[in-house]
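Hello support,

Our group uses your service weekly, and this is the first time we've seen a run hang past the timeout. The protein is Ribose-5-phosphate isomerase A. I'm not sure whether the cause is the sequence or the server load. Input pasted verbatim:
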Amino acid sequence: MMDTKQLKISTFNDALSQISDGMVVGIGSGSTIELLVPKLAEKLNHEQIDITGVCTSNKTAYIAKELGIRVVDVNDVEKIDVAIDGADEVDSNLNLIKGGGGALFREKVIDAMAEKFIVLVDESKCVSYLGETFNLPVEVDKFNWLLVSKKIAAYDNLQVIRRMVDDVPFITDNGNYILDVTLNSSIDPYAMHEFLIHLVGVLETGYFIDVTDQVIIGTQTGVKILDK
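Update from on-call engineer: The timeout came from a worker crash unrelated to the input. Re-ran successfully.
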């Protein structure tokens, strides 16, 4: 039996094989990507190739720079050749919930810019509906966060909690709060995203709909690759 970490690592070769010299690469955030970045640095050294990295979080950017990967600001690139990230949930249409680490806005910017967006997950992240195992993160302005949370709760009698870390509100890299919303199987991701994104005070939602090109899944029986 492979553990979760080993399952994640099993997906790396298929992802790294798609990175070549001169590419601009979107580097995501979270536990899977923090394991991937050292492998990416090894590949660059071993194959003597050069890439430009654009990172979705300050933490990933720090790790990448420490390992000698050139990292630039998203405003310094015209396009991204390939973006690689993890996900908190993946459904059968390759739609995702992301944002467990709170970097969902920057992840969405970079994933939307990418010519190809690759998602790496272990099999526990595959769900029959979005929200089955994970709450939906919604990034909101601090100014009216409570009003927004009440509006979201009223959508379908949902539970909405402001994310806390060690008894203090979690703050994103953009200086905002995260509301974690408990979903149910009757909620349509497209309709829910549209509702949320038009609430004044919502910056972004953790729904990543119609953006994924490929999902690489680490399973106990080997790696599965799903293409859009």
